[in-house]
Give the backbone structure.
Amino acid sequence: MNNLMSLSDEVKSALEVKKPVVALESTIITHGMPWPQNVETARAVEAEVRAAGAVPATIAVMGGRIRVGLDDATLDALGQAVAVMKLSRADLAACLASGRTGATTVAATMICAHMAGIEVFATGGIGGVHRGASESFDISADLPELARTPVTVVAAGAKAILDLPKTLEMLETLGVPVIAYGQDAFPAFWSRDSGLKAPLRMDSAAQIAAAHRMRAALGLDGGQLVANPIPEAAAFPRGEIEPVIEAALVEAVARGIAAKEVTPFLLNRIFELTDGRSLTANISLVKSNARLAAAIAAGLAADPAA
Ligand code: PSU
Ligand code: MN
């Protein structure tokens, strides 16, 4: 494994002494936000993790290796790089083998985090079942990954561009615990309430950490999805963001946007249609997820795996 993966010194020593570590993805940097806000946000999110007493480990593929923990210069280069591959489970090996630069989605970040020995991961929103999936069959590989790789993922629910009821059904079928944090409702990324009830609710990071350990003790595969509502001050009322999402979706269909391009296209269009306010909200929720993930990592560190 050593020739496939490089851990930064900081991440390596934290893992050695079992300090809390939080993995962070890189697709949100390369495909989810425009430069320079993407790099600024990545740094701000790392700072949140540190302020909460954990070590951040941003993950990407560069130079034929999985990099876990990126220094300032590398993060900067990634944020401005062109032709970066968007890596899910299917693409990881091909990217490494061809020596290209790749950004990890939720699925690929989970795989790499688990390989490195990291149990918690913070992001914005996971991929899921797209609207119109009965025709397009577009269902993110993030969902089956949650069912097989033992990493607890903290997100603000699934992206509101998705079909949320179908996404929750699919997670149930796959046996993935979906835990709303501090409320009954499943959050909808830019809004705190999707109008759907989350299957599970927990009110403390320690409980979430205990549930993570309990799954392993029971021999159950897979991770957990923690759905952390966006901070009140940054949230959009659902009625306000929904028409914007619908307009962006209509445009995506009209322009024939498909497969991997769908999510980046929609996020960018929604950014334009809200005069950048969707991005401000996105940044706020990622930082909030980073804080919760750090608290869960602390809970796990206090009760190390057997
Ligand atoms: N959330 C964001 N921005 C993003 C993503 C999520 O706010 O860019 C990325 C994540 O990396 C997620 C991916 O895993 O989109 C899902 O892509 P797809 O729907 O193509 O599986
Ligand atoms: Mn897809």
